[in-house]
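U., I forgot to send this yesterday:
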Amino acid sequence: MTLKQAMAFLREFDGALLANTIGYIDPTPAHECYLAGSIQPVIPDLGPCVGLAVTCEMDASSPIQEANVDGFWQQLDEIKAMDMPVIWVVKSIGPRPEHECVAGDGMAKSLHAAGCVGIVTDGRVRDLKGIAGIPLGVYAKGVSIHHSPMRIPRINQPVEVGGLTIKPGDILHASAEGVIRIPRSCLDRMPESAIRMWAFERDAHAVFSRPELPAAEKKKQVLEILGAYGFLNSKPADPDELGVT
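Result:
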């Protein structure tokens, strides 16, 4: 399966299930896999998006500065040349965070035309109606009606967004509840493992829902199901951590 095929396949799953899957098959600590909950979808009902991170820093709130978004136009050409689904990751660095607006529907349409499937930012966005019609997944801290002259001082460098350092080329999955990073170390195993995790959670939740079973019996049965789907001897080492929240 190619990288592009794997990313397309992972769009079929929500981020929480994939996060659980990573926890069982990869040694990457959980805190290195998900962005802060403050970064949420601002366009509902678009479904998950998966893409390679293309990063930049933007100041869109300094009261007095000259606009300079040459880096944005450069990245549009770079995204198009990649011929891969891309998520544009914007680190907001302006001095007035509540006034940061890093993209509207014009920039969003340009990004989508180049091959971008989503925007992830710790800033804000606007023109939601126009963005929803593209469509493009947008994950941000909220909405701002306007911005100061935009300045992009750095592109294609690691950026800290949502408590996670995102590097160019990182694989991001964004869905209704937020954004996760999928470690490349487990990407080749993710499609098959995600299917097993989906089946495990289905069967485990059926047990959790039975009111007549005492807690100890539920734990016993779920551990048996965990083993049946091949997860018992992988992470987490503590069987009390079932990872089926």
